Amino acid sequence: MKFDRIFNKVEKFDARAMTDPINHERRERRLLDKKRERWITNYTFFFGNLTEEEQQYRDYFETEIEDDPEDDWIDEKLDEIHIASQGQFDPALYDFVDYTQVHDAHENFDDIVEKKLFKYKYRQNASNLSTYERRQYRVRDRFLERAKTRDPILEQNLNDLLASDSRDSNLATIVTAPERFRMVAEEETRPFREYMVGEALQQYQDFYETDEEEQGFFEYMSNLTNRDKIRFMEIFEDYTVNPSDNKEYVMIEKREYNPELSVMSNMVLDLVDFKDRVKPLS
């Protein structure tokens, strides 16, 4: 279904001159003007897996996308609802057999935690839409309520944390300032890991709160080993994070070309400008 959407967009873009000949010239001029601005007068940086080709599509169909926004995450959620409504992927319809266990030595996948993780990951296919939505809204709403009072340390920027880790835990720090050496990432991400484990277990309980079959497992959860609790991190979801694509680009204006200098001199100045101004900005 995702491939069909991408294919249809490519076909629509390739046939743009024929589908709307009245507006084609105006739209094509807008596309070329913005493309020229991105590549001739600016350095352009793309985010959210956006590409130049997709941005050209967005520029050409700008007004249509404004009236009917496109979002891959929403489209995939609609796909999941459609697939679940078919009933063909209900786990209850299948017996799962690990054919490698006779020949290969590995962990025992037939344990209770693995079954519970599998059940939670495919819960949408195992129940009707109204039941799934009621339970999922309960998980989301309770998570957001707990998030209001969570540890402020969880709001820190992870990129900044990892940047300080690369500064304070490298070999140069050991040599020049051993008193400053510490494993920043290992120490300061511990609250994140503990939070994810606790929330994952809570989200599981919130979803199956009214499921009689799960009541016995809830009592067992408090006795899980640390290793098994960590495995539940796999189902953790942070509902405070915007899951949409956030496809965007930013431009940094290029240095103005000096016609009084040679091509080589301008090229050298461009390299210096990129190193000293553009790269730090980017």
Structure characterization notes:
The chain is mainly alpha-helical and 282 residues long. The chain folds into two domains: 2-71 and 245-281, no CATH class; 108-235, no CATH class. Helix content is 59%, strand content 4%. It is built from 15 helices and two strands. A two-stranded antiparallel sheet has the order 1-2. Helix 3 packs across helix 4 and helix 8 (129-147) packs antiparallel against helix 12. The longest helix has 19 residues, at 21-39. It is flat and about 80 Å long. 4% of the residues are buried.
Which strands sit side by side, in order, in the main sheet? 1-2
Q: Provide the domain count.
A: 2
What Rg do the Cα atoms give? 26 Å
Largest sheet: 2 strands, antiparallel
- Count of individual helical segments: 15
Shape: flat
User: What is the tally of beta strands?
Assistant: 2
Q: Spell the H/E element sequence.
A: HHHEHHHHHHHHHHHEH
Secondary structure topology:
Elements: H1 2-14, H2 16-19, H3 21-39, E1 42-47, H4 52-60, H5 62-67, H6 72-86, H7 112-121, H8 129-147, H9 158-168, H10 171-176, H11 184-188, H12 190-207, H13 215-221, H14 226-231, E2 248-253, H15 263-281
Keywords:
mainly alpha; two-stranded antiparallel sheet; 59% helix; single chain; 282 residues
Brief description of this entry?
With 282 residues, the protein is mainly alpha-helical. Helix content is 59%, strand content 4%.
